[in-house]
Amino acid sequence: MNPIPALRYVIGVALQNIARNRGIAFASVLTVTMTLLGAGAAVAVVSALDGVLHQEEAQASVLKVFMADHISFASALNMEHTLGSEPTVLSADFENKNQAATQAGSGLGLSGALKILQETGAGNPLPASINLHLRDIAAVSALNTQVSTSALLYPGPHPTDYNKDVIPRLEKYIFAAQLGGAMLVGVVGAVALVIITISVRTAAFVRRQEIEIMKLVGATDWFVRWPFLVEGIIVGVVSAILASAALVGVGLGFGSGGNLALGIGIRFAALIVLGLIVGGAVLGSFGSLVGVRRSLAA
Amino acid sequence: MSISTSPAPILTGTKATGNGPPARHDPPIIVFERVSKTYPNGVPAVLDVSFTVQPRDFVFVVGASGAGKSTIIRLLIREETASKGHVLVEGQDLARIRHRHLPRLRRKMGIVFQDFKLLPNLTVAQNVAFAIQVTDPGRSHLKEKVGEALYIVGLEDKLNNYPTELSGGEQQRVAIARALIHRPRIFLADEPTGNLDPDAGWGIVQLLLQINHRGATVVMATHNREVVDLSRRRVLAMEGGRLIRDEQEGQYLKEGEANL
């Protein structure tokens, strides 16, 4: 079969179907646009929320390992190297006693108290530490258990420190946000699929006599399917373009500083648009195949 | 009823090749071997039917409504499969043909029905061209082929008319032209005269006889007694799903037989 006339025929019939059933096609595009708009907005919101939570997570994924005063600098560096090579550790920074004092002075407002201690000859009471930045918040607790038995650690009641309360709460929020987003996108996708299926099934019903004749004169099932497939893809892609335009429009309207609303960058917005177009095409083609199946079986 | 037996004007001047009588020594083009068909609702439509059809034969399948005529046609186009026995077309067992190979089988066949099955929003030429557009869109000389098919059925001057602007007989001729476009070796007609007045019906039968004369094997299911009796061709008579008579140059009813 020559592909060019076949393609011309397929696209022609698909456009003819849309024109012939323009009421249904319009309703399909409108509803699929609304559902894709919902899906796109859900992805944007979940992603923004995810970004905030991950930022919090990055800050909370720090395990501070305090070193005993008696250990040598070489031992401390050796330990930094050992812990830094753990697969769950992203980076390890050594913080000596002086840096700890500076940090406590500026960060916690303890410079006065530290100065008094220095003047009375008590010296710097703050221990040196290794700050471990972990890849995954879930690994903090396990690594803490692993290192806290080391003899090189500060002998006080808290040889390590990490944000025990925040971590499980953040984990819960991130899971809830991802699950909620996935469910929303799934439900919205299913609704779009049903709508496209109904639309194509209606088009196939309107063209049932044509399909019957096609089969009688020896057209292949794929030749019958293609125009419906193209019709579904057109509905899906047009809906995705409209939904994307609306999302980007609103995002630009409320955005600032080169970003869209919710702090979404242009690159991520482009990814959402691409995802909606591909999603629309996939939904359209899948819905079409389901929609036309009954007519082919008849 | 009076039927004009003069040749239909559309056939005047056609390039009949005169392929002669059925090829008795060639292998049969159609074989029904102890075929039974029972529909899912349990109704037996065809019971233990056996017959063969030689290439270039012309066969009437006759019988009352529900006798099994249409089921014979449906089995031949593999719209139905036999519950028992074998249906062979050109030596190929239709039950063994995979679904994806059905289009190839159907392109060897020309099929017409009582209800014409024309697309009302297409012109006569477009209806005929449709059969090629959906099977081989790149085929060259489409216009010429459509013109030739319409010339054979005598509608070359109705190219741009819509089906609703034609008589029943003309609509059936368009359906025949569409069926002819693939130059089928087997031509199947299921009650093609059922919706036509006697003259138009006779015209259609003459056209089918002409197609047969040009070399195609024709199987026509009908309960039109007059056309069967006037044609004097082979008759397969069905009753209650069984083949009760197979007669060369037969008549609709056997002498002394009650009306089917």
Overview of the molecule:
The complex is a heterodimer of chains A (298) and B (260). Chain A has 298 residues and is an alpha+beta fold. Chain A has two domains: 183 residues, no CATH class; 74 residues, no CATH class. In chain A, 72% of the residues lie in helices and 7% in strands. Chain A is built from ten helices and four strands, in the order H-H-E-H-E-H-H-E-H-E-H-H-H-H. Chain A has a four-stranded antiparallel β-sheet with strand order 2-3-1-4. In chain A, helix 7 packs across helix 9. The longest helix of chain A has 41 residues. The model of chain A has no long low-confidence stretch (mean pLDDT 79). Chain B has 260 residues and is of the alpha/beta class. Helix content of chain B is 27%, strand content 23%. In chain B, the strands form two sheets. Chain B has a six-stranded mixed β-sheet, sandwiched between helices. A four-stranded antiparallel β-sheet of chain B has the order 2-1-4-5, with helices on one face. In chain B, a hairpin with a 2-residue loop joins strand 4 and strand 5. The two termini of chain B are 18 Å apart. In chain B, 44% of the residues are buried. Classes of the chains: A alpha+beta (298), B alpha/beta (260). At the A-B interface, helix 1, helix 8 and helix 9 of A face helix 2 and helix 3 of B.
Task: Give the arrangement of secondary structure elements.
The complex is a heterodimer of chains A (298) and B (260).
Chain A: H1 3-20, H2 22-60, E1 62-66, H3 73-84, E2 89-95, H4 97-108, H5 111-119, E3 129-134, H6 140-147, E4 160-161, H7 166-206, H8 208-217, H9 221-254, H10 266-297
Antiparallel strand pairs in A: 1-3, 1-4, 2-3
Chain B: E1 30-38, E2 44-53, E3 58-62, H1 69-76, E4 84-89, E5 92-93, H2 102-107, E6 109-113, H3 124-133, H4 142-152, H5 168-180, E7 186-190, H6 198-213, E8 217-222, H7 225-231, E9 234-239, E10 242-247
Parallel strand pairs in B: 3-8, 3-9, 6-7, 7-8
Antiparallel strand pairs in B: 1-2, 1-4, 4-5, 9-10
